[in-house]
Structure to design on (413 residues):
């Protein structure tokens, strides 16, 4: 009778732990990035009543006789199935689609599926809830080297950026009715390396050195400015249909335009291929140029899939400044749970395999999404009933054993 009581007590202890796990799962049903845990039980030692015997020439074998001594907790492990990605509309909310964890903290690293991030007062990218710094790579000269060790991501947002003009495209028409030696002057605005606007003029003169007084399909062009500081010249030739056949002189050669004090000399390349020579009015003009004035940072953008961080400027420019890293483990179930919905590397998890998203078996990053808890409430309520009924059954075993012991004591009467 005593054996049955201790066996039932072991079951009571297990069902209490089972209920504790179910309770924790249900408590975190709405916790972003939470991974539910599951309980596996194992039976304990069995008392050998008879070892049995092997068969002989005249008699069959006898099976062993054993009585179990109860149940034991096998293990509790996290369930790393994918949670639902919920849209938040906030670009710094990140979720992982597939395997992988965000990395927080340079020392005593934490790994988490919860990717609600923000910038602190020093410009560090941190987890919004815990304040732990997000790990990744910073760009050097616009290049992100993901082979380097990860470090804190620090983003400077009080900066400006300009882009010097490298290419100018002309369009429109140079009238075929223009007399020999006739001219057409157009203005050209370009930006230097400091974002200052510089102006120059392009003068087109019809004719060639071989026939300066006769209308031809060749035009000389020259770049000038006031005050003097711009130079560049060449020719552009049209076919009988009025289309450019080639800039026979100066094609692809940069012109020179002086910039503002402290800036580099501008050397844009002018594209004449979209000009025409038709019997209509002169309309040649600059249709586009790729320079931009100085602009301020207006937004920090994290791109989906790869987690590259870019600064967006008011002038339309963008600049890559860093990239969020992900880590994966050979055995995620070997991780140890920490605070703030995070995990710690365990003895049996293996080392963190850190790299860029969408590489090496690591999942992709979903920007503007957070991963919801993967708790299945229907399954947890079922587990709750199983734990309750298991506890009740073991309690009845103790009650029954007590009643039998009471009968045994009453034999003395």
């Amino acid at each position: 009778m005593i054996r049955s009581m201790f066996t039932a007590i072991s079951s009571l202890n297990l069902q209490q732990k089972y209920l504790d796990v179910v309770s924790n799962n249900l408590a975190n049903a709405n916790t972003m990035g939470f991974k539910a845990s599951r309980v596996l039980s194992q039976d304990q030692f069995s008392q050998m009543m008879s070892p049995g015997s092997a068969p002989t020439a005249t008699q069959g074998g006898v099976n062993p006789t054993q009585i179990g001594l109860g149940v034991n907790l096998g293990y509790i492990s996290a369930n790393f199935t994918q949670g639902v990605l919920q849209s938040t509309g906030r670009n710094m909310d990140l979720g992982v689609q597939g395997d992988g964890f965000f990395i927080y903290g340079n020392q005593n690293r934490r790994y988490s599926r919860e990717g609600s991030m923000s910038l602190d007062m020093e410009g560090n990218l941190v987890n919004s809830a815990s304040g732990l710094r997000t790990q990744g790579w910073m760009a050097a000269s616009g290049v992100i080297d993901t082979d380097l060790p990860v470090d804190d991501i620090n983003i400077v947002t009080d900066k400006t950026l300009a882009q010097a003009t490298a290419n100018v495209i002309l369009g429109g028409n140079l009238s075929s009715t223009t007399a020999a030696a006739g001219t057409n002057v157009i203005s050209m605005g370009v930006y230097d390396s400091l974002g200052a606007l510089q102006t120059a003029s392009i003068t087109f003169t019809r004719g060639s050195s071989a026939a300066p007084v006769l209308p031809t399909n060749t035009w000389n062009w020259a770049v000038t400015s006031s005050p003097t500081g711009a130079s560049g010249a060449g020719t552009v030739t049209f076919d009988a249909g009025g289309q450019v056949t080639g800039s026979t002189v100066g094609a692809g050669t940069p012109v020179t335009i002086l910039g503002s004090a402290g800036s580099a000399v501008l050397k844009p390349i002018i594209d004449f291929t979209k000009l025409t020579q038709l019997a209509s009015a002169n309309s040649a003009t600059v249709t586009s140029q790729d320079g931009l004035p100085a602009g301020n940072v207006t937004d920090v953008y994290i791109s989906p899939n790869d987690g590259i961080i870019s600064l967006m400027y008011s002038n339309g420019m963008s600049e890559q400044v860093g990239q969020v890293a992900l880590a994966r483990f050979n055995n995620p179930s070997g991780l140890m749970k920490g605070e703030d919905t995070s995990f710690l590397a365990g003895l049996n998890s293996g080392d963190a395999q850190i790299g860029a998203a969408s590489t090496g078996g690591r999942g992709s990053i979903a920007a503007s999404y957070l991963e919801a808890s993967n708790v299945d409430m229907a399954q947890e309520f079922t587990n709750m009933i199983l734990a309750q009924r298991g506890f009740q059954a073991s309690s009845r075993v103790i009650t029954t054993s007590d009643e039998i012991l009471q009968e045994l004591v009453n034999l003395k009467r």
About this structure: The chain has a mean pLDDT of 91.
